[in-house]
Design goal:
By secondary structure, the chain is an alpha/beta fold. The chain has a 7-stranded mixed β-sheet with strand order 4-12-11-10-9-5-6, sandwiched between helices. Strands 13-14-17-16 form a 4-stranded antiparallel β-sheet, covered by helices on one side. About 1% of the residues have low confidence.
């Protein structure tokens, strides 16, 4: 299968030739879901190439959702019905436009950082950067974040803040603090993919709540609370990931009333809120005693900053901080000082304003190029949600897109449970390096949607 004569130096890199060979065998049915591939060292020896080349080929196959690696079992052919391509870092291959991950739409953060970095050594807090800090974070960082949250939360209380290494880290600390193995957590049937991995790692049961184009359905939430007695309900209420839905005030009130009735905590992941200036009041503002709010700067400023914060009732802060201490002892004071100065100097607000303006331009391109298809967007959203026509499903479409040089994230990645898998893909509009790249990528997606699915079946 991996004879040396099959691979030749030319326009197509050898790692890509190896990956395409395996993809072809899968398409032909000669490799099936669950089949184990030879060890990478053996493939390198048979093909007469170095191990790095084979490693790149396997990385490409994993990005396409064709192969997965399992401890103790090596690399196996993925089940196309259950596997969604997902990676945390963008693919930067020549000629490939990766719209599968979040990335800033502007260089505003880098420009702000370049201005700020020379000033840090004379900041009075600079000497503290070489020390450990309390797990809640440095006091000055908590003050800055509390002040930034105050317009949204209605309170400015640093004692209710725990600084974290991004929102995902904050969510992990919150779940570890408030839930015990076996507890049930409810979430939208389609939601942020990180919650599923966290619940599995903590032995928590994640159950889906039905939704419509307005978001989580209160009637279904009521029934699920009565039946499963959950510990918490997880929500992304503003610019929902992946659908871009923002819950309206009436639905927020209904959800809060149900949560209060059944003694259920609300975990509010509101990382996109700063992008949407006229969003309804946050749950933490209307129902602070039952809400744990998670925010941060990764989505609205830059993921590379890796700074988030948890705003919770004072009675829960010690337990959340204890989980952070167990997890990583304390967060980076350098990141905290950068964020603090950016907040104090107004740089955060200017970066976010620039992001809003650029997202508006890019979402207009989405609506123009994908006109006629079912696309859920918002002028200031980082992403769009493309619901696929027959006969496409998310995994098949994302593989076809990859073959056309575009990365998108299959809807399967966001499904909570097997019965709620959406036939859709998420398109991260900020991930393209330019508006021109975004347009080219979207035109490729439109060509796939408008073409004959059978032509792509031979490719994937």
């Amino acid at each position: 299968m991996f004879e040396k004569s099959q691979f030749t130096t030319g326009d197509v890199p050898i790692y890509r030739q190896i990956a395409d060979l395996i993809a072809d065998k899968i398409a032909e049915g000669r490799l099936a879901a669950g089949d184990r591939l030879p060890p990478q060292r053996d493939i390198a020896r048979m093909a007469g190439v170095n191990l790095t080349t084979v490693t790149r080929a396997f990385a490409s196959l994993q990005e396409r959702g064709l192969v997965e690696s399992r401890p103790g079992r090596g690399s196996i052919i993925a089940d196309p019905a259950m596997t969604a391509s997902f990676q945390s870092a963008p693919v930067d291959e020549q000629g490939f436009i990766d719209l599968s991950v979040n990335r800033p739409a502007t260089t505003g953060y880098l420009q702000a950082l370049a201005t700020l970095m020379p000033q840090l050594p004379v900041d009075r807090r600079y000497p503290a950067l070489q020390d450990f800090h309390a797990p809640e974070g440095p006091g000055w960082a908590r003050e800055a974040m509390a002040g930034w949250f105050s317009a949204m939360a209605g309170v400015n209380e640093p004692a209710q803040i725990v600084m974290t290494n991004g929102a995902q880290h904050g969510l992990a600390c919150v779940l570890g603090a408030v839930a015990r193995p076996g507890d049930t957590i409810l979430a939208d049937a389609v939601t942020y993919q990180g919650i599923g991995a966290l619940c599995r790692s903590l032995d928590l049961t994640l159950r889906p709540v039905g939704m419509d184009r307005g978001g989580m359905r209160p009637d279904v939430l009521e029934a699920m609370c009565a039946k499963h007695k959950p510990r918490a309900v997880f929500l992304v209420p503003t610019l929902h990931n992946p659908t871009t839905i923002t819950l309206d005030p009436g639905r927020r009130q209904a959800i809060a009333e149900i949560a209060r009735k059944h003694d259920v905590l609300i975990i509010e992941d509101d990382v996109y809120r700063p992008l949407k200036e006229l969003s309804p009041p946050a749950f933490v503002a209307t129902d602070p005693d039952i809400t744990i709010h998670i925010g941060g700067l990764s989505k609205c400023v830059a993921p590379g900053l890796r700074l988030g914060a948890v705003l919770a009732p004072k009675s829960m802060i010690a337990d959340i901080a204890a989980m952070l201490r167990i997890n990583c002892w304390s967060t980076s004071p350098l990141n905290a000082l950068i964020a603090t100065r950016m907040i104090e100097d107004g740089l955060v607000d200017s970066v976010i304003a620039g992001q809003r303006k650029e997202f508006a331009h890019r979402q207009a391109i989405v609506r123009e190029v994908l006109s006629g298809f079912d696309v859920m967007t918002d002028d200031v959203a980082t992403h769009a949600w493309l619901q696929l026509p027959e006969p496409w499903n998310g995994n098949a479409f994302s593989r076809a897109a990859h073959q056309s040089g575009v990365g998108v994230l299959s809807g399967e990645a966001f499904a909570v449970g097997r019965d709620s898998v959406p036939h859709a893909v998420r398109i991260n509009v900020g991930a393209a390096r330019s508006r021109e790249d975004l347009r080219r990528a979207l035109e490729s997606l439109r060509a796939i949607l408008s073409g004959d699915r059978r032509l792509f079946d031979t490719m994937i």
